[in-house]
């Protein structure tokens, strides 16, 4: 396999580990970028980007980053908090009056960002096309009764997070949520990152497909059993309502949409650059960064049925939990995306890490491919 890009010699073992991913014949394309102290020490890519394996992965290939998007969204929200346009502990209904319905009058932005609001799913089934109808989705969430009382537990809002936080961005910043995030987070740092992708960029987007034959870890199997056997369960609804959630990633309308929970498009470089921007203070003042990375939720996740630990819109490391550690240090924070992509920062080592892949693994939190690359990286530091 031809590995493109460059690396500092100190990190040759990381390059070898990256190349070894492609020993698996199912692996199609991937990219890895590691920055230390703001300097790029590894920037690699390899494999194929298209559906048929005919087109090489290029330096400027981008792909759907799924939930890696959530932290970009949280940072835009925290910038608005710093500007006084939003507040973490004021009821959401103050900005979005309809949201007060069904006992939600005391839910705050802090609850939304830390997955404590009790709104990871909608009970009433929606048609597939509702996914692309922003007013319909936000109206449905404004009318929804929480699955639990806010602040009494947490459950990952896999896709609803995008409409909930995105609607507050839209109201506070007077523009589409994706436009707000890109203008505030991507443009200032020169990141190749998009929430609502222009049609003229589609030719650069890698086709995403699932790997076959791997059933994943216990957490993945648990969630799969529930989604197959209990159609009305909260966890099932969280991933399958609207039913188009799981089947849309390669569709033009998904790419165009501004869904800031799950449809950011970028590459390993944009993930690493984003986390460098958090480490060096470019994106948030220290007070807001402290809010982002402070533990808000810890323990059994009501949606994912595995232990999760969240700050505000980012996942915090759980060093003792195999599927929930980034693998570098207890102070690491970031976010995995469905199927294997991940971006995170480790303040202790001043490391910003981005890994993207277009063959999806079946894991719920961290993908073992990324974790292995981090273990090798740790050995090089």
Automatic annotation (TrEMBL):
Pfam family, one: Beta-lactamase
InterPro entries associated with the record: Beta-lactam-related, Beta-lactam/transpept-like, Beta-lactamase/esterase
Domain Beta-lactamase-related, residue spans: 18-362
TM stretches of this protein: none
Protein name in UniProt: Beta-lactamase
Organism encoding this protein: Pseudomonas rhizosphaerae
């Amino acid at each position: 396999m031809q590995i493109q890009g460059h690396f500092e010699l100190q990190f040759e073992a990381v390059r070898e580990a990256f190349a070894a991913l492609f020993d698996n014949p199912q692996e199609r394309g991937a990219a890895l970028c590691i920055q230390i102290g703001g300097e790029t020490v590894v920037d690699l890519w390899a494999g194929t980007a298209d559906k048929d394996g005919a087109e090489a992965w290029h330096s400027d290939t981008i792909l759907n980053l799924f939930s890696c998007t959530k932290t970009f969204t949280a940072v835009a929200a925290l910038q608005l908090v710093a500007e006084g346009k939003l507040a973490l502990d004021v009821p959401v209904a103050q900005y979005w009056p309809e949201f007060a319905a069904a006992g939600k009058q005391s839910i705050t932005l802090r609850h939304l960002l830390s997955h404590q609001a009790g709104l990871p799913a909608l009970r009433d089934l929606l048609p597939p096309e509702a996914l692309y109808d922003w007013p319909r989705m936000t109206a449905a969430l404004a009318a929804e009764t929480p699955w639990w009382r806010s602040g009494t537990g947490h459950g990952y809002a896999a896709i609803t997070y995008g409409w909930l936080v995105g609607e507050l961005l839209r109201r506070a910043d007077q523009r589409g949520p994706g436009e707000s995030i890109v203008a505030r987070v991507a443009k200032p740092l020169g990141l190749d990152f998009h929430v609502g992708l222009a049609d003229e960029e589609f030719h650069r987007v890698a086709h995403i497909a699932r790997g076959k034959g791997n059933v994943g870890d216990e957490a993945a199997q648990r969630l799969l059993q529930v989604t197959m056997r209990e159609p009305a369960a909260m966890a099932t609804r969280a991933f399958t309502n609207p039913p188009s959630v799981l089947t849309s990633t390669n569709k033009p309308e998904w790419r165009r949409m501004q869904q800031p929970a799950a449809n950011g498009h970028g590459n390993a470089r944009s993930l690493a650059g984003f986390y460098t921007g958090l480490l060096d203070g470019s994106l948030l003042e220290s007070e807001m960064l402290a809010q982002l990375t402070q533990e808000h939720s810890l323990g059994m996740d009501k949606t994912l049925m595995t232990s999760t630990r969240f700050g505000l819109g980012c996942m915090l490391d759980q060093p003792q939990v195999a599927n929930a550690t980034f693998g570098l240090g207890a102070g690491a924070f970031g976010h995995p995306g469905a199927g294997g992509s991940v971006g995170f920062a480790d303040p202790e080592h001043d490391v910003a890490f981005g890994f993207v892949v277009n063959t999806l693994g079946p894991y719920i939190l961290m993908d073992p491919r990324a974790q292995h690359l981090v273990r090798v990286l740790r050995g090089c530091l």
